[in-house]
Amino acid sequence: MGTTFSVVLFGEQRDQLEEAVNAALAEVQRLSDLLSIYRPESVWSEINRLAGQGPVEVSPEVFELISECLRYSRQSEGAFDITVGPLMKAWGFFKGSGRLPSREEVAAALAKVGYRNLGLDKTNRTVRLDFPGMEINPGGIGKGYAVDRMVDILRSKGIEKALVMASSSSIYGLGAPPDEPRGWKVDIRHPQRPREHSATEVFLQDLSLSSSGGYAQRFVADGRTFSHIMDPRTGYPAQGMLLVSVTAPRTIDSEAWAKPCFIQGRPWAAQHLPKRCHAFFCEDRPEQTWGWLRVAITKPREIG
Questions:
Q1: Which residues lie closer than 8 Å to 216 by C-beta, 6 or more apart?
Q2: How many Å apart are CA 36 and CA 75, to the nearest integer?
Q3: pLDDT tens-digit readout, 254-287
Q4: Domains, the chain, ranges and CATH?
Q5: Which 8-state DSSP code applies to residue 165?
Q6: Does the predicted model carry a pTM greater than 0.85?
Q7: Which helix (H) or strand (E) holds 18?
Q8: Which one, of 75, 85, 89, 144, lies nearest residue 114 by Cα?
Q9: What's the sign of the alpha-carbon dihedral 30, 84, 81, 51?
Q10: 75-111, pLDDT tens digit by residue?
Q11: Of 66, 2, 11, 5, nearest in space to 36 by CA
């Protein structure tokens, strides 16, 4: 899935730990075969090839995952959108470091983007893309989903203390390490000097952390810096933010919400971020203070 997965865990029986790690990493391989857009033989790639021509029947797991993506799209007002694939290609971020497309290229790609043009038939369990050339991209939730599945497997094997990581972008802390009762200490990278400094630290105990930062993939053109975090509503990379990190009980949630918060900003997140999540913002504004968003819920509201 274009990233490196790793597991750190503690326990009394070495054989039990090794069995649990092997099972968790085998699950990553299964999900890579299922979800990776870098593998032409994956189920996800097959959907992209065929669903623009007609409905494609999928497994219950894939159907539910795509259904969750549509819920995130509605809740984020379109800032999260798994149909963003054509834009990522137009901007050169698919297997590349980026390029500045023409306005015509952006318009042509944007015409193939929009979660409302993705149809799900629950009765027949099929996926349909309204236009040929549309593509769904699991990059916004795939790593988080994989981390959650790994944690489920570790729990089923009796593991109580583990840190599961998809690179440094999506992380889950299961229990707490023996020497730190607050949980697993994780540094949130400094967005301007990620190799040298951290912006802050967080302790994860049965909690996930996902980060979206413009430093991961970016390029400079016409005196402006463009990152890979795309606003699927405008067709252009999001501006005004350096990094957003989100904590949540599930890693799929923290990963899915990190990008809308990056795109929409702190005031929007204060109104829309689910109460189970917290977000750390690093704005690209010298007058702003980096820090955690405290979400105040003044009245009950439905969180899908």
A1: 169, 227, 228
A2: 25
A3: 999 999 999 999 999 999 999 899 999 999 887 6
A4: 160-293 (3.10.520.10)
A5: E
A6: yes
A7: helix 14-35
A8: 85
A9: negative
A10: 999 999 999 999 999 999 876 678 899 999 999 999 9
A11: 2
